[in-house]
Amino acid sequence: MTKNTIFKCPNCKNNLIDLVEQMTCIQCGLNYPVRDRIPILLLEEAAGQYGDKNIDYTITAHKQEVKDGYTNVAKSIEQSGMQDNVYFLNLGYAPDDNPQYAVHDVPLTAINKNSVKLILETIGDYDFNGKDLLEVGCGRGGNIYTIHQYYEPRTTVGVDLCKANVKYCDSYLSSHNISFTVADAEKLPLEDNSFDAIVNIESSSAYTDIKSFYHNVNRILRPGGFFLYADVMENSVFDSNIQYLKSLGMEQFRYTDITTNVLLSCYQEYRKKILAYKEVEELGNKEDLEDFIGKPGSKIYNNMKSGRKSYRIYNLRKQQ
Ligand SMILES: C[S@@+](CC[C@H](N)C(=O)[O-])C[C@H]1O[C@@H](n2cnc3c(N)ncnc32)[C@H](O)[C@@H]1O
Prior knowledge:
Blueprint: H1 3-6, E1 16-18, E2 22-25, E3 31-35, E4 38-39, H2 61-79, H3 113-123, E5 132-136, H4 142-150, E6 155-160, H5 163-173, E7 178-182, E8 195-201, H6 210-220, E9 221-234, H7 235-247, E10 250-257, H8 259-276, H9 278-282, H10 286-293, H11 299-306, E11 309-318
Parallel strand pairs: 5-6, 5-8, 6-7, 8-9
Antiparallel strand pairs: 1-2, 2-3, 3-4, 9-11, 10-11
Helix pairs in contact: 3-4
The protein binds S-adenosylmethionine (SAM).
S-adenosylmethionine (SAM) binds at residues 66, 70, 88-90, 137-139, 142-143, 159-162, 165, 184-186, 201-203, 206-207.
């Protein structure tokens, strides 16, 4: 599969022509840049091309903050010289007495063991062999890398809003059947009914309009396809979001509350993480940084500890 057969126009979902340095929609004519071989399929990148069309090119202030925040994180990892040690951007999972669902052990030699464990727990016994896999919010590619250590998906696509993250993924993971694009989870440039599994780890709570993301998940999955999902949210918000997914026709296959595992992981890992992210701290985002790494005493840590927020895994399936 080439990038012009996998990726569609985020505006109208029609085919794109690959013109090497840009991709052009055959239907609405919007042009999207391709930088360092990576298609940037964001509407804001096409802004101004057809000012009079009924297209919303705007990006919310919150989304811009998310983009800038992760760009700073990427810079900090580079500047601390840890770029080859940081493949994940999540809080991780440390085993305790809770039941575990992973069917594979974390390799003893794994770097970022708690994050490897988190993806293995999230996917449980799902078998990716021969399947078409999409990860939305793929960060630095650790989840896709891990899945490919155990399975041979037919094709894999990684999508993230942050160019620096996607560039890093592309530098060590791209192959004949693994492709990446910069795109928005709320406007995924992918065809209806085209993937067997969608993975989404600790990303969705950053989305401006989570319902649009859920619509995209339901649209892109094939009937019977799996949504392998983990995130941290306020309990009532989580409950109503899952209700919303069910109202779209997704059935719940598994639910596990892993808050205590994530708290334990935060406690085990935060000192190591501070070393990788010290440059972000120097840029003046101390509180955001402490939240991002789940430092004990941070807002996110306290919210999980007090029970206001929970970190949960859901496996949902689109109806046949
Ligand atoms: C906490 S990180 C987790 C990354 C990865 N899932 C992991 O487990 O390591 C959240 C990721 O979601 C991405 N993200 C946030 N908002 C997004 C959006 N609207 N569309 C696509 N990706 C988004 C961020 O750029 C970031 O890479």
